Amino acid sequence: MKIIKFYESSGSLKLRADSIEDLWAIERIVFDGDLVKSESLRKFKRHEGDEGEMKTVVIRLRVEKSELDKNAVRLRFMGKIVEGRPLEYVKLNSYHTLNIAPGDTLEITKADWPDYLIQVVKNAVKNSRKPRLGIIAIDDEKAIPAYLYGYGLSFKDEVYSRLSKRMSQKEFTEQQNKYFNEILEIAGNMSSDIIVMAGPGFTKDDLKKYAEEKGLLKKIPKRILFFKTSNVERPGVYELIKSDEVESLLEGERVRQEFKLMAGFLEGLASSRSKSGMEQVGKALDNYEARTVLVNDSVLGNPEVRKLLGEAEKRNIKIEIFNADDEIGRQLHAFKDIGCM
Fold it and tell me: CB burial class (10 A; 0-12, 13-18, 19+) of residue 4?
């Protein structure tokens, strides 16, 4: 993400989104009632009954709904048009959808830009400069590729080995080599500078030996590392992320920080140092008992939540925002999406 200009007097922030992580970050900071301006396509009909033709326009709309489509890699803002040009192609107060994709520029105007939202933008800019981490969890039955993004883990389609104990040794070896070649091809195509291959048992070691003997690792222009996990399922990947073995690789990665924060929050619940839910967090703020507030991004649009976070900012209390769709966000959801410690 790139910050192009912040017009502080008008509360307008002009950004360029460069990745799906940027789209995710932008969705977190735009609420109902905010204004979003960007270039768009709109059908224009010169006469009633015409099929119409698509025209390029610049539209500013008041947001009523937003939606991130991870498959299409599009962030959609729906709402009424409040401004646009050329005027002949724009109908004010009509509904329109702005589709924002990586590479697009947009301008967000808000009545107020609290520090915790500015921090979301700064973190996105900072994360965009880091290499992504690719992960492939592997055993003798299947492999699960995943990406570690700024917003958490994203799992891709599983790859199956199709190996069987009923195969002859020759058939087994040939099929295993096909399986290894498929995994190495996936690793080579992953948009990450570092790939971690991890799993239980000896499959990952057999893959490493096969790739080294065939000289295939040298053909992949990435750093590939091999680690052990207890299983190949998603919990095994999360186990890997939390392990000390990859701490240096994940230094500064948001998901690792969130695991530590959640561990501290849960530990504090046992001694009543941590609080959960709007009412308890509000009381903790009033009594100056909160040092850090944890909140899911799914409730940032709630006026009561924003009021509470505003009070936290006035008291210089740190605010940590979690992705509600990630594992830690789902844990926090069980505590009404907001807590403090």
Answer: exposed
Report whether 269 contacts 263 (CB < 8 A): no
Taking the domain 2-127, which CATH number applies? 2.30.30.870
Distance, C-alpha 128 to centroid of its chain: 12
Residue 74, SS3 per DSSP:
strand
User: Roughly what angle, to the nearest 10 degrees, separates helices 278-286 and 303-314?
Assistant: 20
Nearest to 242 by CA among 226, 262, 265: 262
Q: According to the model, what pLDDT value does residue 131 have?
A: 62
pLDDT at residue 15, as a whole number: 96
Look up tokens 């009923």; give the residue. Answer: 166
- The CATH number that domain 258-340 falls under is 3.30.1330.30
Q: What is the CATH number assigned to the segment(s) 133-246?
A: 3.30.420.60
135 forms beta bridges with 146, 196
- Residue 219, burial from CB neighbour count under 10 angstroms (0-12, 13-18, 19+): exposed
Q: What's the DSSP call for residue 218?
A: G
Long-range contacts of residues 38-45, Cβ cutoff 8 Å, at least 24 apart: 38/98, 38/100, 38/104, 38/105, 38/106, 38/107, 39/104, 39/105, 40/96, 40/98, 40/99, 42/89, 42/90, 42/96, 44/88, 44/89
pLDDT along the chain (341 residues), means of 10: 93 93 91 96 76 89 93 94 93 95 96 92 81 89 89 86 95 97 95 91 95 93 92 90 79 77 95 96 95 94 93 94 88 97 97
* Distance in angstroms (rounded) separating the CA atoms of residues 217 and 195: 11
CA distances in angstroms from 311 to 282, 305, 327, listed in the order given: 9, 10, 27
**Token pair for residue 199?**
């799993």
Look at phi and psi of residue 224 and say left if phi exceeds 0, alpha if psi is from -120 to 50, else beta: beta
Domain ranges of the chain: 2-127, 133-246, 258-340
The pLDDT value given to residue 52: 77
CA quadruple 222, 223, 226, 227: dihedral, nearest 10: -120
